[in-house]
Specification:
CATH class of the largest domain: Alpha Beta
CATH topology of the largest domain: Rossmann fold
Radius of gyration: 19 Å
Shape: globular
Structural class: alpha/beta
Distance between the termini: 28 Å
CATH architecture of the largest domain: 3-Layer(aba) Sandwich
Largest sheet: 8 strands, mixed
Number of domains: 2
CATH superfamily of the largest domain: NAD(P)-binding Rossmann-like Domain
Strand order of the largest sheet: 3-2-1-4-5-6-7-8
Number of helices: 13
Helix content: 40-55%
Oligomer: single chain
Length: 295
């Protein structure tokens, strides 16, 4: 397996493309937006520069990594003759099933189709294809080049052979794969999102302020980033989407999104990417500081 297509040039997509390319896989980075592709590649280049500065890679390794990435605006052209497709589009079930239905008709029959979904059922996504045994979840953590964990989610029909292939592939990327079963939120977000939601509820109920809540969790629980700042980093819209999936899947009130989170998303206060969330990132340096915390 040497040829990989990544669909989506956003935060997760460009991070996944960066990681594969750094380990000398040929990567087709696909996005319908030329501007997103340009921004995605610029982000990869900037992150590689940071790695060069920290002497984690050489300048020549940076050059090779960038040469391993080819940009496409057409899914049909971009997935031609690849061994693996990793979809990293927005966390929206309708969009993901649409993409997988299309991939199923245009990809080679042996191509493995993976999704970077952080909460949506792999079985549901696989059901729109004629190759459910070759559909799997490959949930990378953000920022992808730095974080070691990959949740490997086996759908109801995913074959053991495909699971073994993706586990081995993850290890070749120097990641730590952890296999989990296909239930809403899997493990990472089933545990993380209720904590973030409860932190927002704590703020909403005026128990304490933003910085006070984050300080308690950082100093008291040894978290590298407080839950409200982490929510900003993830994106409040993403947090809301995942909580909605959990609430729908488990029918349990404990997963119901806090009204404050709902209102902030409706108001466009999405965190770092919008310039404001629980913290103000209108100063570019502040946003850069948060982005570098896990680099």
């Amino acid at each position: 397996m040497k040829n990989v297509a990544v669909i989506g040039a956003g935060t997760m997509g460009n991070g996944i493309a960066h990681t594969f390319a750094q380990f000398n896989y040929k990567v087709n980075l696909i996005d319908i937006s030329k501007a997103s592709l340009k921004t995605g590649l610029a982000t990869i280049s900037k992150n590689l520069d940071r790695m060069v500065t920290k002497q984690k890679i050489s300048e020549s390794e940076k050059t090779v990594t960038l040469k391993n990435i080819t940009r496409f605006t057409s899914i049909e052209t971009g997935v031609k003759n690849v061994d693996l497709v990793v979809e990293a589009a927005t966390e929206n079930v309708a969009l993901k099933t649409k993409i997988f239905k299309e991939l199923d008709t245009i990809c080679n029959t042996e191509t493995i189709l993976a999704t970077n979904t952080s909460s949506i059922s792999i079985t549901e996504i696989a059901a729109v294809t004629k190759r459910p045994e070759k559909v799997i979840g490959m949930h990378f953590m953000n920022p992808v080049p730095v974080m070691k964990l990959v949740e490997i989610i086996k759908g109801y029909n995913t074959s053991n052979e495909v699971v073994e292939t993706i586990v081995l592939l993850s290890k070749k990327l120097e990641k730590t794969p952890v296999q989990v079963n296909d239930y809403p939120g899997f493990v990472a977000n089933r545990i993380l999102m209720p904590m973030i939601n409860e932190s927002i509820e704590t703020l909403y109920n005026n128990v304490a302020g933003v910085e006070e809540i984050d300080t308690v969790m950082k100093l008291g629980m040894a978290h590298p980033m407080g839950p409200l700042q982490l929510a900003d980093f993830i994106g409040l819209d993403v947090c809301l989407s995942i909580l909605n999936v959990l609430y729908k899947g488990y029918k349990n009130p404990k997963y119901a999104p806090c009204p404050l989170l709902v209102n902030m998303v409706m108001a466009g206060k999405l965190g770092v990417k919008s310039g404001e969330g629980f913290y103000d990132y209108s100063n570019h340096r502040k946003a850069e500081k948060v982005a570098k915390m896990f680099s």
